[in-house]
Amino acid sequence: MDELTLSESKPKQRVNVLAVVALGISALAVAASIYLFVQNSELSSKTDKLSEQIMSLAKKNDELQKTADAQAVINEEQDTYRKLTFLTAMAHDIEDGIVTDDFVVNKVRFSWGDDGNLSDVVIDVENQPTLALSYKSKGAYELSDRELRAKSDAIIKAVSDYYTKSPNAPAWNDSTFVQLTVQNYNIGESTGGKFKLVGETK
Fold first, then answer.
1. Residue 32 has what pLDDT?
2. Angle, helix 145-163 to helix 2-94, in steps of 10 degrees
3. How many angstroms from the chain centroid is the CA of residue 202?
4. Helix (H) or strand (E) holding 110
5. Biggest alpha carbon–alpha carbon distance for the chain
6. pTM surpassing 0.90?
7. Are 119 and 111 in contact (CB under 8 A)?
């Protein structure tokens, strides 16, 4: 009878051990689930904070970009005014100040192109007394084309030499278009660094 009792109680112990093991595993699973839930909540909170920081940084970046764009516009306007002021002062210095044996610069007008270089120059001259005797009217002279071209080149070179002494000047180069007039009548034009009289085709 005692043997029977012993053999009957052994399976109960196994059942109890399995129950304890199962209970332990369940407890571990619940604990792991709680831990993972807490970790997930913390990660979610950190992600939300990072998202807010990213949005804040993006907003600040947009504001900085707007400020930079506004500053670029201001810088461009300042550069325009600087060039305008410089060219106005340069024109004032050249007018009645640059002369050759044949011409006196009466007026000069400068303008610059999109590349920042000098694009156009208009030089209006008056005749020196000796050349006035050869002047017919409306930009025509009683001189050969070769003589008039040489005199025109000389006054353009004198203006160009004075102008290019300044390191701050927009560049005057061969692509700069130059028009030479006398009392506002066209004498000729310089393109590609080569001067041609009005009516010249070659």
1. 84
2. 130
3. 40
4. strand 103-112
5. 158
6. no
7. yes
**What confidence tens digit (pLDDT) does each residue in 18-62 have?**
777 778 888 888 888 888 888 888 888 888 888 888 888 888 888
Full 3-state SS string of 135-197: EEECCEECCCHHHHHHHHHHHHHHHHHHHCCCCCCCCCCCCCEEEEEECCEEEEEEECCEEEE
User: Is pLDDT above 60 for 99?
Assistant: yes
Question: Tokens for 101?
Answer: 């044996």
* Lowest-confidence region among 45-54, 103-112, 158-167: 45-54
* 11-25, 53-67, 104-118, 121-135, range with greatest mean pLDDT: 121-135
What residues contact residue 198 under an 8 Å CB cut-off, 6+ apart? 139, 186, 187, 188, 189
Phi, psi of 114 (to 5 degrees): -65, -25
Give the strand order in the sheet containing 185-191.
Answer: 103-112, 118-127, 177-182, 185-191, 194-197
Which residues, 6+ apart, have CB-to-CB distance to 83 below 8 Å? Answer: 112, 170
